[in-house]
Amino acid sequence: MIQDFKKDMMKTFEMSDLGLMHFFFGIEINQEKEGIFICQRKYTETLLKKFKMESCKTITTPLVTGEKYQKEDGSQKVDGSMYRSLIGSLLYLTATRPDIMFATSLLSRFMQSPSQVHYGATKRILRYLRAEAEYIAAAATSNQAIWLRRILEDMGEKQEEPTTIYCDNKSAIAITKNPVKHNRTKHINIKYHSLREATTRGEIELKYCSTEEQLADIFTKALPRNKFEELRMKIGVCHNTLRGSIRD
């Protein structure tokens, strides 16, 4: 039926068959055997960078239990345009993240005159989102590691010990150790759970590494001089002192 519809449309209009949809208005679409999955991974990463939260500490829930938010809470007022921009971005994200719907809707009530308390609560949602962004990034790294292990195995160098991946996010590590799909993680695309499966098989071992010791930071962010030089030394880069003269 779909193919016949395509043929009829192409007879009437000038158009090309681009195959299965993969991206639509910032929403990533993955059509797998298990079903059709939608996510906004890139949008989430961009949002974290926009509000300088890409290196924030993560949490497991978007709201503090029992917290009461009021229009006048006594705290300092914040930039309303910035707050509305963040709320608007989070509302768009609820298209694929219903788990943040309640928190975002609640905090959207204060867009007219937001306070520091309200802004802090919205940033908590970003901290919650970052945990899964880290998990997905670790899954991508895991896939690369598995690929390299297969190449080594084909060359007769089978790896008996698991490949260690260092992660500075405890929440992401916790997801890999929980074999049960629950409400907080069931929305994550099933393909990203390959990390959990690789960990169960003993091919990958995810270890915690504090942010201060994370060598990968030198490849992903701007660092102050002392930290940059420290990490540069740890990855083996050193000054090469030239001796003698240059000859023709």
In a few lines, what is going on in this structure?
This protein is mainly alpha-helical. The protein folds into two domains: 41-129, no CATH class; 134-234, no CATH class.
The biggest sheet, with number of strands, parallel, antiparallel or mixed sense and barrel status, is:
3 strands, antiparallel
Content-based structural category: mainly alpha
Indicate the radius of gyration in whole angstroms. 23 Å
Mass-distribution shape = globular
- For the record, give the distance between the C-alpha atoms at the N and C termini, rounded to a whole number: 75 Å
Tally of individual domains? 2
SSE arrangement, N to C: HEEEHHHHEHHEHH
Runs in which pLDDT lies below 50 for 5 or more consecutive residues are 180-187
Count of runs of 4 or more consecutive helical residues:
9
What is the mean pLDDT? 79
Strand order of the largest sheet: 1-2-3
Beta content: 5-15%
Q: What percent of the residues sit in helical stretches (DSSP H or I)?
A: 40-55%
Strand count: 5
Polypeptide structure, described:
Residues 1-64 form the Reverse transcriptase Ty1/copia-type domain. The termini are far apart. The model is unreliable at 180-187 (pLDDT under 50). The chain has helices at 2-12, 41-50, 80-93, 101-107, 116-154, 170-177, 194-201, 217-220, 225-234; strands at 23-24, 27-32, 35-39, 163-167, 204-208. The longest helix has 39 residues, at 116-154. It has 248 residues and is mainly alpha-helical. The strands form two sheets. It has a three-stranded antiparallel sheet. Strand 2 and strand 3 form a beta hairpin. The chain folds into two domains: 41-129, no CATH class; 134-234, no CATH class. It is globular, with a radius of gyration of 23 Å.
